[in-house]
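Collaborator request, handled under Task 6.
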Amino acid sequence: MATPQSRTGRGIKPRVGAGRKAMKRCPSCGAKNKASFEYCVRCAEPLDETAPDSAFSQGRALQAKLFTAAVLAIGGLVLFILIRGVVESVSPPQPAGQTARRPTPPPHVPSIEPLPQIETKEVLSELSEAVAAFNEGDYRTAVAVLQGVVRELPENPTVHQYLGLSYYQMGRYEDAMRSLEEARALRPSSFELLDHYVTAAKKSGDVRAGVEALTEFVNSYPEELEARLELSRLARVVGDNETALAQADYLRKSRNGDPEFAYEYGVSLKEAGRLDEARDALKASIQLDPNSAVAQHALGVTELLSGRPGEAVAPLEAAVAVEPTNGDFRFSLAQAYEKADRVSESLDAYQAYLEHASPNDPRAAVVRERLAIARRALANTSRVDRTSGPGRRMEPEQIL
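Structure tokens returned to the collaborator:
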């Protein structure tokens, strides 16, 4: 990005010296402009007069400043309301099975100030066109227009944000990351911009870039708990259990009694292999929120990993009762039944899993094949029992 020119207050600081003899007087606000300007730098009205300095012009300039400040304040408020609605409408949904996040307030949206040597009205008109295209789902047009606007307003984070979100909606996730990174550099304290960037990173497959951005943000803003929560989750994805556990422990201690943070601590302990501690932490989380399907599921899986399938059944049944369409929950329950030698129930649970498995679940094909084998073996067992009398039993092949 080009190095920005020095600024003082509103607009770019004018140079002193050249061009002072030939000036254009704005007929609307009385401000003086360079002879080469076609529009006033203060009120953006067309220029067609020239005049020297005068006390009158200074008074008119002061009035113009007050008038322009009022107009910009109103315009900024309108733009803030408009952009807040757009940004909230495109925020990515939460994954199924996770506790919904607390909503974060929209970031401050600065007003678009008139800048010298550009046709400000035209730029604002283009920005309005891009926003309208974005709202209508015409992201290709939004990108085309915003690419020009961002060159005119390179230091406005909202423009970069719109461009990044437009790229995101088009599936151009790496381009989205670059534009959102530009916005973040201009507004580094915004968790919303960070959240959009991390979402684009996950979509692009570059999860580590999201972890790095979150780590940098947490180091700068340690009290931002939502960022720590997302860092803990993503650190587990990349196998950095130490970072995940450290963030989860911080969350648990920062807000004691929060079921979401208690769950995060328990599941991080599970992923780190500290199963006994994980069991206790997850039970504590369930006491805080008995209807948390993810906590019940995590406890059941922890019991399975500990070699206690009998104890895994109850929490897994509770998870399935809360979210009956979750294929992962039903698969874990089927495994618990199977390992607890509850064969008939495991076959039914595997069948229910197949009915709710996602289309790209690689386990489904294996389960479908072995389930058919197991049902045939179970049928043969029943026939043997009927013909050979008591005392003889064939075990069906294990599913997985």
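The cover message to the collaborator said: "The first strand starts at residue 23 and ends at 25. The two ends are 55 Å apart (CA to CA). Please let us know whether this matches your experimental observations."
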